[in-house]
Amino acid sequence: DWLKNPYFIQFQKQKTKYEKGQVLMVARLDGPDPATVKRVITDSLAAEKKGLTGIAYFDARWPKPEDDKKLSGYALYDNAIHVAAEVTERVLPVVLNQEDALFQDGEAPDAALYCGWYSLAKYQDAFEWQQGAVAYHIASAECTTLKKKGSQVWCKRLLEDGVAATIGPVGEPYVQGFPFPQLFFGLLLDGDFSLVEAYYLSLPFISWKMVLIGDPLYQPFKGRGVLP
To answer: What's the CA gap between 41 and 38, in Å, rounded?
Structure first.
């Protein structure tokens, strides 16, 4: 069943099967090996102390539509990536790609934030990650394993390459199973919300395949008051 998330911003005034008091906000401290998990915690604490800086990269597939009122499915989430870029550029330098091709090797230095699509179980090693970076890729297999040697799924490879937090599905989630990028990054940039709070407030459904990996209490923009 598709269980509506009572914390999701757009459902908070609706009747949902489960109320907020029945749902725990959770994340996983996990990774390819114990050293990676320790590094995630250390990097999160360090980034909180000094503040996360760098460049935000957003990888859409199409130009932003002039009329975004009746979008659904892939078009809705592609537009959400555009909106996330607009929100983020008030805080960090932004690079937005709206071509079919993904960012290529060496094209994304000093990466602090990332959201994009669509490369199924095939990580694109284009990034030099800042300490404390937060990134996720919208595709259907990206957290099917965190351990399998040689796997190129995005969650595993992002963690191996140095990000502190990522999101992905353990099986086919359908695109609406992902948190909305403009909400997730907007809440994270606000500075008052932790990683796990930003995730649950931007996640439409709690019943469907999605996993948050990282320190749930991580606040990379804490105390900076970057968004009103």
So the answer is: 5
The helix (H) or strand (E) run that includes residue 86 is helix 73-88
What's the 3-state SS for 22-85?
Answer: HCCCCCECCCCCHHHHHHHHHHHHHHHHHCCCCEEEEECCCCCCCCCCCCCHHHHHHHHHHHHH
Contact 174, 206 (CB under 8 A): no
Q: Which are the contacts of 70, defined by CB distance < 8 A and separation ≥ 6?
A: none
0.90 exceeded by the pTM?
yes
Local confidence band at 122 (pLDDT 50, 70, 90 cut-offs): very high
Question: Residue 228: CB partners within 8 Å, gap ≥ 6?
Answer: none
Parallel/antiparallel/unpaired status of strands 165-169 and 127-137: parallel
Question: SS3 of 205, please?
Answer: strand
- Contact predicate 204/8, CB 8 Å: yes
